[in-house]
Amino acid sequence: MPSDTPPAFDGKAFVRTLTTSPGVYRYFDADGELLYVGKAGNLRKRVGSYFLKPRLEPRIAAMIAQIARCEITVTRTEGEALLLESQLIKSLKPRYNIMLRDDKSYPYIYLSGGEDYPRLAFHRGAKNLPGRYFGPYPSTFAVRESLGLMQKLFKVRQCEDSYFRNRSRPCLQYQIGRCTAPCVGLVSKEDYASDVRHAEMFLGGRSSAVIDELAVAMEQASAGLDFERAAALRDQVAALRQLQAQHHVQGASADMDVIACRIESGLACVSVLFFRDGISLGTRDFFPRLPLDAEPADLLAQFVAQYYLDRPVPRELILGDDLPEQDMLADMLATQSGHAVELKSRVRGERARFLQMAERNAQASLTQRLASRQTLGTRFEDLQKLLELPEPPRRIECFDISHTRGELTVASCVVFGPEGPEKSHYRRFNIAGITPGDDYAAMHQALTRRFRKVAEGEGAKPDVLLIDGGGGQVAQALGVLKELGVAGIHVVGVAKGPARRAGEETLILVDQGREIHPGPTSPALHLVAAVRDESHRFAISGHRKRREKARERSVLEDVPGVGARRRAALLKTFGGLAGVEAAGVEELMRVKGIDRGLAERIYGALHG
């Protein structure tokens, strides 16, 4: 009887068919899953090194044993092969390649364009709005800190356009000296444009030029006997000089990243120090999944190629190790960025000090992660014993509900794995169509939306599902899973203790008809409490954002015929929305552009 098993992959025979040209090779297993992507200057020689060597490292031998087929793509140059390899790794996420696990785009400071009174704002995502973007910054904190400095130094507005257009009097930012109130015309367009230009110069690294201009303006104001303006400019110059002294880094080039790597106990940390315009923007640590050949130089090479694939590249990269094919990598980055890029690993003076700083930071972060991983491993193993699971869970999800007296309900779903929170998998659900305050209905809706995809064969299924609540909430979860036909999930309710004290929580297993009281010393309860608290935090923050967004929206925006100008005229005439609500139809008609029909629609919208 013929066998349905496909023949084993003959690597030696396949190598004989290969070209000696540069290109990219891809290994797949019997199920069609991509195992590995690599590039080669000589495909026959490089792929042959996997199949013709008598002895291979255990990790590589384990991968070779799974290969069922190999695909190649021939390129014109080795540089093209390097670029294609980086693109494929980032998009396809092969099992045995380095993976950065950094899906979040980097934050920028955005200066809007095409407006009389531009605004500065935090921005993350596609840069498709008119205006100018400064960055990228390594963290949200760095952007917020810079925006705070901009408010103090140049007083350029940062409020949303909808808020700006509907002001009838200055807000708190004006009263504390952080805005010049362009919304109500307390600053001329010319003076505001000057503030914007100085802010733009400062963010672009031209702080010295800003100081020189302000110093000249200060002298002119003093000569013209405008001592109040001269004093304000003097204080601004002094603040700028102090800031320049604090943030300028001696020895840093205009644009430079310093990158160091440490590998230990199967984990790797890559630490990056960012310098832009001679100013330190801070650091960021990455914990990539290790590739097959886990050497620091190879890891750094793959990191640099992937990391700068779709990000701005500085003119200088200081690296902790000599990279293989370093010149080719520099050429690829230069082609992509449109300017020369230098990769340096043998440095002296201040650059050597920066590199030592990055290396110490990488080692400290790696040590901390290893300790945290060990603690998490203990907690996961203890949870396995407590719940009597066949093996430690690989994925834990927790749901929570947040609302204010039943309004604007938000459900959260957070995900934890053996290495901690997996924030890229977090989800929020805006709940609608239920009786306000019905937490059971809210939980039912959120769980249905989450697990409908699992029932359709999409998305990952958790091993343990935590529900912040008692038996009623757990029953909702079990009902949803039964309706959708999703099995194999251990559902656990997390109920607070009698005095609501930490460590006295009760774990409720409705389907098993039992309750567990682990006690405050239980590592498993520490894990459950951490996941529950994170879910609670994520739900509350989502609810607050939804509530703030609802408050920012004016009721007038929903009235047909009331655009931005008429809305601003109404608010200015009556001193705010409360004044508009108190006005009658005849009073509303006195506002320019509002006839009786529109006045009646406005009155009706405000009074139900």
Automatic annotation (TrEMBL):
Residues 208-243 form the UVR domain. Residues 20-98 form the GIY-YIG domain. It holds the Pfam family HHH_5. Gene3D superfamilies: 5' to 3' exonuclease, C-terminal subdomain, GIY-YIG endonuclease, UVR domain, UvrC, RNAse H endonuclease domain. InterPro entries: GIY-YIG_endonuc, GIY-YIG_endonuc_sf, GIY-YIG_UvrC_Cho, RuvA_2-like, UVR_dom, UVR_dom_sf, UvrABC_protein_C, UvrC. PROSITE patterns: GIY_YIG (PS50164), UVR (PS50151), UVRC (PS50165). Residues 258-481 form the UvrC family homology region profile domain. The keyword DNA damage applies. Belongs to the UvrC family. NCBIfam families: PRK00558.1-5, uvrC. This is UvrABC system protein C. It comes from Rhodanobacter geophilus.
